Amino acid sequence: MIFFVNFNKRNKSSQNLNKIHMRKSFYILIASFFWFTANAQNDVENAQIVAEISPTDTLISIENPYKFEQINPDEDYPWHARRFKVTAGGFFPLNNTQIQVGQTNGNPGTLIDFENDLGFSKSSTSFMGALEWRISRRSRLDFEFFSLNRSATKTLEKQIVFGDNTYDINARVTAFFDVQIARIAYGYAFLSKPKYEAGLLIGAHVLFGDVGLRVDANQASLEKRTNFNFTAPLPDMGIWGEFVLGKRFGLYANVNYLAAKIDNISGRIISYNLSLLYNIYDNLSVNAGYTGLNFRVDDEKERLSGYLKWGYNGPSVTFTYAFGKHVKLYKH
């Protein structure tokens, strides 16, 4: 599964079948992450323990092979390296959205810029949430969710062909663009020290979207409406790093990227996140960050073509609650 986008006219049977199919694919992806994590981590940890035992080790040293200085996270950093973290807050992105949906006879549609052609505001406000599970010293699973609903009404300044409908100049139209993004990622730390960690990420953003355009009822004797929904699982790979800057300050960053083409479908995704943490009290912290996701997908079929380019980039303010036992981090 690399890139898969459906640009389908909305009808009840096709929409339900599409949603059921994509939900099954997403569940299979989650199950695969758990299977990979459990097997890979057991092998790595067993290898580490064997490698650290030498012929001169006593029974006591074998039982506790990590004979190195440790920090006391409960006293020094109660917010750092906890088994679980729950994050929620506000996201304030700037959007750049372009879409093109061809006709069923094979003719290309109009490339529509939602902000310029349809009057969408570039700025928006949304909710974002995340859950982090530190499986072990080096392994983690990240789950994220983001939702954004946008709409606008405008009198057209140019003719627009969207699917099989044509919207003429001076027609007053209402458009909407609703999207939900779920992300799952497995991270492995090649560097795992008490005050800094860094490693690789493998995961996927799954986009569930709905876009529509209609002429206002009082502008036409027969209402004209075109709705399309799309689902886009976008796998990616990247790097991440987490740093303790002080007793109450921390820094987290990640960058993900992937570009691929399979048959008539091509796509590219790049996402990033930079977040500064301040520990308010005990397990509760506040984060000020900057997050971005930019992707494009081209889907060319015999009788239908679709193009979607969307990017959101902007600041976020979230709160994090860390709980569970501390994951032991060593200086060696």
Topology summary:
Elements: E1 8-9, H1 12-52, H2 59-63, H3 73-76, E2 82-91, E3 94-101, E4 112-113, H4 114-117, E5 126-134, E6 139-155, E7 160-162, E8 165-167, E9 172-192, E10 196-215, E11 225-244, E12 249-262, E13 265-281, E14 284-300, E15 305-326
Antiparallel strand pairs: 1-11, 2-5, 2-15, 3-4, 3-15, 5-6, 6-9, 7-8, 9-10, 10-11, 11-12, 12-13, 13-14, 14-15
Task: Note the main attributes of this structure.
15 strands; disordered N terminus; 4 helices; alpha+beta; 332 residues; two-stranded antiparallel ribbon
Give a summary of the structure in a few sentences.
This protein has helices at residues 12-52, 59-63, 73-76, 114-117, and strands at residues 8-9, 82-91, 94-101, 112-113, 126-134, 139-155, 160-162, 165-167, 172-192, 196-215, 225-244, 249-262, 265-281, 284-300, 305-326. With 332 residues, the chain is of the alpha+beta class.
Outline the structure in words:
By secondary structure, the chain is α+β, with helices and mostly antiparallel strands. It is 16% helix and 56% strand. It contains 4 helices and 15 strands. The protein has helices spanning 12-52, 59-63, 73-76, 114-117, and strands at 8-9, 82-91, 94-101, 112-113, 126-134, 139-155, 160-162, 165-167, 172-192, 196-215, 225-244, 249-262, 265-281, 284-300, 305-326. The chain has a 10-stranded antiparallel barrel. The protein has a two-stranded antiparallel ribbon with strand order 7-8. Strand 11 (225-244) and strand 12 (249-262) form a beta hairpin. The protein starts with 7 loop residues before the first strand and ends in a 6-residue tail after the last strand. 27% of the residues are buried.
